[in-house]
Amino acid sequence: METVSFMRRLGTLLLLAFIQVMFLNRIALFGYVTPLFYIWMIVRFDSSMKRSVILLWAFFLGLIIDLFSGTPGLNAASATLLAMFQPGLMKLFVPLDRHEQIVPGFVSMGPRPFIGYLLIMTALHHTVYFILRSIPLGDWPELVLKVVFSTILTLIFMLVTEHVSVSTVSKH
């Protein structure tokens, strides 16, 4: 069972890295907006995973994207930091009476808590990523625009993906 789980996660990692590097990195709407959808994998780690495992998966996901994007360490650092906060942030949005394993989503958390969780996770990642990318910090208004609008676009991508996955599962 663990081998299947590992292979599924590896497939997700490779698919998200491919989509990010081949398609999404090429989007630069108005010079500010770039969706960083690869964080979907980190956001969706279930509540039973150990923090060390989450950190390793996130680091390698970011590292693969860095290797193929020419961004030395930016994605690896941002993804690893996000993974460090993921378990704690998820607990903030999960009902206190839930003790079983939870995979973050509309069904397990409810729409409002899930959207709040996604928003905070995405904003945290994008803030760190764009600050690291903008060193030395100079143009604060441009930095804020990049963080805000990239967060919104990434959030839209994640909400659409979640909606499609819920719709697909409910049809079967």
Question: Could you characterize what this model shows?
Answer:
The chain contains 7 helices and no strands. It has 172 residues and is mostly helical. It has one domain: Arp2/3 complex 21 kDa subunit ARPC3 (Orthogonal Bundle), CATH 1.10.1760. It is globular and about 45 Å long. The mean pLDDT is 92.
Helix content: over 70%
What is the CA–CA distance across the termini? 23 Å
Quaternary structure classification: single chain
Order of helices and strands: HHHHHHH
What number of domains? 1
How many beta-strand elements? 0
Query: What low-confidence regions span 5 or more consecutive residues with pLDDT below 50?
Result: none
Number of helices: 7
CATH architecture: Orthogonal Bundle
Write down the CATH class.
Mainly Alpha
**Mean of residue pLDDT values:** 92
Task: Give me the Rg, rounded.
Answer: 16 Å
Question: Which percent range describes the beta-strand content?
Answer: under 5%
- Structural class category: mainly alpha
Silhouette? globular
CATH topology: the name is Arp2/3 complex 21 kDa subunit ARPC3
Biggest sheet record: none
Briefly say what this structure is.
This protein is an all-alpha fold. It contains 7 helices and no strands.
Layout: helices, strands, pairs:
Layout: H1 2-22, H2 40-43, H3 51-69, H4 74-93, H5 106-109, H6 111-133, H7 140-171
Helix pairs in contact: 1-3, 3-4, 4-6, 6-7
